[in-house]
Amino acid sequence: MEDEALANDWLACHQCDALYVHPQLNDGQRAECGRCGATLFERKVNSIERTFALSVAGLILLIPAIMLPIMGITLAGQYQEASLLDAITQLIVKGYFMVATLVFMFTIAVPTVKLIGALIVFAVLTYQAAPVLGGFLFALFILLVVIGKNQLEILEQ
Ligand SMILES: [Zn+2]
After folding, report:
1. Which helix (H) or strand (E) holds 124?
2. Which of 5, 23, 52, 121 pairs as cysteine with 31 (C-beta 3.0–4.6 A)?
3. Residue-wise over 83-97: b if at least 16 C-beta within 10 A, else e?
4. Are 36 and 54 in contact (CB under 8 A)?
């Protein structure tokens, strides 16, 4: 227990692993590594309100991102556009159910769950309601961020 409290007082640089005593910062301040200059820790101004605003904007913009055409093809003089939903529907029609499921999961379901989860975490932090649910959703949000980063690394290879 004492070791855990001691471990929480220290912060390692993400770039060079230099150890520092965890800084006490006010809103708008950030701590930088003295060795490499990387940002160790940052407290953004109105971070909860900004998260709420960006989550709402993200949910609103998710609708046109799904419904509006994302690509157009001219073939033999005919122009055809397709939205994300059109692409998923065509994958299902052609029998590529697994690919359609993956496209749906990573382009519609996961972003929607992340944005709704961020809104619920905001509500929990603001109104102090259901902290266990907020903790669970925050852990789920971090898990989805890690999965998203791994997915990008796979696509880059
Ligand atoms: Zn460093």
Report:
1. helix 110-127
2. 23
3. bbeebbeebeeeeee
4. no
Angle between helices 110-127 and 131-156 (to 10 degrees): 150
Nearest in space to 42 (alpha carbons), one of 25, 21, 57 = 25
Domain segments of the chain as ranges: 2-42, 47-156
Kindly give the distance from the C-alpha atom of residue 68 to the centroid of ligand 1, in angstroms, as a whole number: 44
Distance CA 23, CA 34 (A): 13
For residue 63, the CA-to-ligand 1 centroid distance in Å is: 41
What separation in Å is there between the alpha carbon of 11 and the centre of ligand 1? 11
Question: How many CB atoms sit inside 10 A of residue 115's CB?
Answer: 20
| Cα 24 to ligand 1 centre (Å) | 18
- Inter-residue contact 90 to 102 (CB < 8 Å): no
